[in-house]
Amino acid sequence: HDSSVTAEMADEGSLDLQKPSLHKIALSPIQLEVVKAAFAQVANAETDTIHSNEAEGLVVQLFQHPLSEEVLDAIILKTEGTQQLSLQDFVGLVSMLLSCTTHWGKLKTPTTGRVGFDTIGDQTLRKALKRGFEFNIIVAGESGLGKSTLIDTLFQGTFSRRALTPGSYQIPDKTVELHTTTHVVDEGGVRLRLSITDTPGFGDQINNNECWRSVEAYILQQFDLYFEQENAIQRPSHIHDTRVHCCLYFIAPTGHSLKALDIESMRNISQHAVVIPVVAKADILTLEERAAFKQRIREDLEHAGIPLFPFTRDDDEREDTVLNEKIRALAPFAVVGANGVQNVDGKPTRGRLTKFGFVEVENPVHCDFSALRDMLVRTHMQDLREVAMYAKYEEFRRAKIVRDSQQ
């Protein structure tokens, strides 16, 4: 290959640079040699080009890391309509992809000593702990399924609206009402502003057609409020985030299959928020009935095109992939909620005492409560926040900008 090749030569290649472009990062001479060597290994000896389908594998080899969706989308965008890539094309492609990620692999710049930027993680953590975190949940499902009890069980306290307003809780006569309660909890020096939105009246009317629209409207309203603050001339230093991070959807333990109302509701809500299906009061089903019911629900969800969280990502680490598959295999979560504590073998145990025995809430043999709690709080809370912030909200934001520009 010509040793005079530089990052700027991408401007002379065959790629369509009129397409939406990422910021290009010029390659250093050392980086350029690494790219040229990798290209030479797979290039056609006669044409000195590679097929566009080989670009992804070559980039993975250079970056030494699974490619994010953003990088993959950029590769597809830049190679669309192009069968063969010259070295010029590939150098230009790499120079743009470097702006999408910090996983530069073989293209990293080595240092001769410790600089100190490895402390940025500690700095970020201190700032985040000082500011605190926000987590917003909406619970939907018919009345009498134990939504309030489960919320109080999940967070080990009095959090549900029903628990906070004893004696005055009424189901609306005609429409779905939404009520939000907000709490600040502190655990181990980590402060969390927890907002829980209840939906009394959901699915309880004679005509339940489109009862999910109130939930959908609420989610979109929170997006709109955030959008207005984000685009204000004088933006606040910290925008109070009320965007819904997930919807816990409660399913009646019928043992049959999903109702048409459940499917339609989850399909529409999932367009704007992560929907986590929960089989309520699972202790009324036998283990065999529960397993069969969960399998039918999974089939109904797949047929309706409703994805199960955690979603599959191309850049997931191996251990994340294994954990996510394990969680998806448990969904929908068959749960039991209980505020009471009984003494079992000398230990205080949360659960429900029935004439058939004691149902332990946190026993994985009895129900999936522990798995649901761990996913929501201990392993995937940040993932839920990021899906709301970077996927669902971005879709809303993009559509709103396009819509406003056409008016």
Brief summary:
With 407 residues, the chain is α/β, with parallel strands linked by helices. The protein is built from 13 helices and eleven strands.
Number of distinct beta strands: 11
**What is the strand content?**
5-15%
Q: What form results from the Cα inertia axes?
A: elongated
- Roughly what is the average pLDDT, rounded to an integer? 84
Q: Residue ranges: pLDDT <50 for 5 or more in a row?
A: 1-20
Structure, explained:
The N terminus is likely disordered. The termini are far apart. It is built from 13 helices and eleven strands. α1 packs across α4 and α12 packs across α13. α9 links the parallel β6 and β7. The protein has 407 residues and is an alpha/beta fold. It is 40% helix and 15% strand. The strands form three sheets. Strands 4-5-3-6-7-8 form a six-stranded mixed sheet, sandwiched between helices. A three-stranded antiparallel sheet has the order 9-10-11, with no helix packed on it.
